[in-house]
Amino acid sequence: MWKFTLRRILIMIPQLFVLSVLIFLLAKAMPGDALTGAMQANPNVSPQVLAEQREKLGLNDPAWQQYGRWVGNLVQGDLGKSYVHKIGVADLIGSRLANTFYLGVAILVLTYLISIPLGILSGRYQNSLLDKTITGYTYLSFATPLFIFALLILFVFGFQLGWFPTSGSVDVGIDPGSGSYYANKFYHLILPAIAGALVSTTATIQYLRNEVIDTRLKDFVKTARSKGVPESKVYSKHILRNSLLPIAAFLGYDLTGVLAGNLFIESIFGYPGLGQLFLQSITQRDYSVVTILVMLSGLLALIGTLLSDIILSWVDPRIRIG
Amino acid sequence: MLGNTKKKIVSILFIAFVLVLSACTSGKSTPTAQDAPATNESVKESGKFPKAATNTAAAIEGGTMNYGLISDTPFEGILNPIFYSGNPDFEVIQFFYPSFFATDENFDVKDGGAANISFSNDNKTVNVKIDDKLNWSDGNPVTAEDYAFAFEVIGNKDYDGVRYDTSFMNIVGMEDYHAGKAKTISGIKIVNDKEVQIDFKEADPSVKSGLWSYPLEKKVFGDIPVADMSSSDPVRKNPIGYGPYKIKAMVTGESVQFEANKDYFHGAPKLAGVNLKVVNPNVVIESLKKGDIDLASFPNSLYDGKNVPTNVEFLGRQELSYDYIGFKLGKFDKAKGESIMNPDAKMANKELRQAMGYALNNEQVGTQLYHGLRTPATSLIIPAFAQYHDDSIKGYNYDPEKAKQLLDQAGYVDKDGDGLREDPKGNKLTINYAAMSGDTISEARAQFYLQNWKDVGLNVQLLDGRLQEFNSFYDRIEKDDPDIDVYGAAWGTGTDINPAGLYGSKASFNYSRFVSAENDKLLTEGASAKSFDMAYRKDIYNQWQQLMIDQAPVIPSLYRYEVQAVNKRIKNYDISYGGSYDSLAEIELTSDKPEVQQ
């Protein structure tokens, strides 16, 4: 088990290297740079000044030199400076990471809170009206575009009923760190989290439903029933455990997906997070931020698969690799 | 009540659905050229917006106004006029760190601001005198040293913003300082605590409107290396200004709570405070209806003149920018630093360019696609420069018959009978048009132009068959991509009338690469010492406007209007150019609660 994990981690090093080369070249291949459009901000800015700034940023050096500098700094823990935001990329991402993390966790928790009971119920009472309703809901949520659903939720609960704040991650002027600060943050989190969770339950519900239906017919369940185990216990002890396997396989991805950011929700609810930062950095050609964010998500994907494998081999000894 | 809500939800869903659909089929919704209105009267329609809030009810004492910063991204939080680059940051800055100078309707500095200026007899030296009562919100006075310090920072080679421009280079000793050859800027002298004298190499009338207008507090920033200033706490966390409001609390990127600056040099503002928050453009209409925000700059693409909130008033003024159609006439020679025209360029024929101008029905684009927020442009100097815009120039009004006539005369006739004109040599003529993507209207507008041109027999195709994303658009225009013949773009004019940076033969932003001795002569004259005489300058720029219309290297297509939505409880708010210096300080409320649309 430890050998397996270690091997996987070692393999990540060349993977990350290839990833970094690809990301860097692709980022540089985008037309324009952070200074394209500077003349829109100040029509009098002289081209010589722009050329000077490009020189200062090292944009005129050959690509391999720029790459070397970037990776060199990266290895030393220097993520570079954002041209648009004019602060260190580490600080910039750090300032958005917390929000993204809270939102991601809230969506993940809500998704499982909704989908696990629904999946089990739907599988247990297969073909009943309840099952049909739940399946109907999964189809509907699968077909609903997130940005429309988020707008709708915001309109009804934010504007019409006025139960929730309509934008931001926290109210201004509350002392950071105090209890009421976190309560307020949580209050701002509810609506975006619900919007995100309600449309991302489909896969989990469907997987769980199928697994429950499959497992229900397995021999060991029949044995349990014939031994006189009460129906509720059959489900909670025997069927549920075995049905959760595929869910566990996804948990690794889901855990790292928490940090991926959610563009639509962030922008509709005015909730500053990494998703928005990523899009903005691409459109404004803020290379240092784009490359780091892609690297980050690449790293997260690698860790996610590793976690998934570890979790899976932990819950299911059959697939443990020696 | 319930039924009503339900209906609204359904209608919202429907609207969202239609939006999605229309995004796919916007080409189809293009109005056809045949429905063109007969007259040009609606050109003046945009005057329908008042420039000041018309509320006349009695004002309440104090009160807090809610300001909506309309943006789909958080504001960056570079809250200093010397370092910021994005407009969202500027919207925050205006409340606590306003410009030094009051300006008149020509954007020239006039007395009455936080500092006044006076010119020497030869107009080469300007004296800036800061108001005696002007203090930073940390209690220190705003001094001459602070103002001079701003020049030293912007001119420093480590400065990382975009403000170091030609107007700075014109200061005596600035280029030596920038190159590191001098420790100080020889042309900037501190006369006394509140007075600075600046010497310019050339007398340039643009100094009247383009003089740098913000100080930087030396006591706070003096010890910070220039390269680190933009990321320092006094810019990011606890910014200090001298405006009518000061920052009380802030969540970077999301919201700012301002309180009245009791020490403001023109007296405390009427409001007790302002709460600013970022509002996504998707929900701006709802936020206005509900009274969540009292004041916001309204996104043009959402304005349709009908389904707008009724509890707000719309104020409008001309935007300092214009849209234009440019023709690629040559290349920029980097080694020589000047444009070179190519006499064999596809668009080198003047009549062809003029015909393409007459073929465009910008009237209809303005009224139907932009709901009156854009109007046909007639000249490259926008009407907001009231003294300089030449009314008598009619520009390229929609006149397809004239376009056809011009093309016939120039030899562009249809020889093979396919309904499309060939070039004078009889070869097939396909013109590539580069257009930028942007809002939902961009595609419809590009398709409409193509149709207009087809109506006069010109085969114009969209470059690559699609709209170009902003960065790649300008990348290709800048590099004089040979695939581009015609392009549709826009320029911000700023408050400086001088167009030399965009159209001079040595200007790299002269994207059409048009070169003419007459053009260069007029542009030089317009920025010369003689042009301190306004009548003379007006005459020069009138000649220039006429020249550019006649030669048509670019054709101005649309002027833009910006609208601000103002809750009906707001009083004394005036957005006209050259209005009060204290327009934000004078705002009053006439009710504790915002007006709400039921």
Automatic annotation (TrEMBL), chain A:
The keyword Transit peptide does not apply. It is found in: Cell membrane. The chain crosses the membrane at residues 101-121, 142-166, 186-208, 244-269, 289-315. Keywords: Cell membrane, Membrane, Transmembrane, Transmembrane helix, Transport. Its main location: membrane. One of its GO terms (biological process) is transmembrane transport. It is a multi-pass membrane protein. It comes from the Bacteria. GO terms for cellular component: plasma membrane. Residues 97-308 form the ABC transmembrane type-1 domain. It holds the Pfam family BPD_transp_1. Belongs to the binding-protein-dependent transport system permease family. This is Oligopeptide transport system permease protein OppB. It comes from Paenibacillus nuruki.
TrEMBL record, chain B:
The keyword Transcription does not apply. GO terms for cellular component: ATP-binding cassette (ABC) transporter complex; periplasmic space. One of its GO terms (biological process) is peptide transport. Keywords: Signal, Transport. Residues 28-41 have a biased composition (Polar residues). One of its GO terms (molecular function) is peptide transmembrane transporter activity. NCBIfam families: Opp4A. This is Oligopeptide-binding protein OppA. It comes from Paenibacillus nuruki. The lineage of its organism: Bacteria, Bacillati, Bacillota, Bacilli, Bacillales.
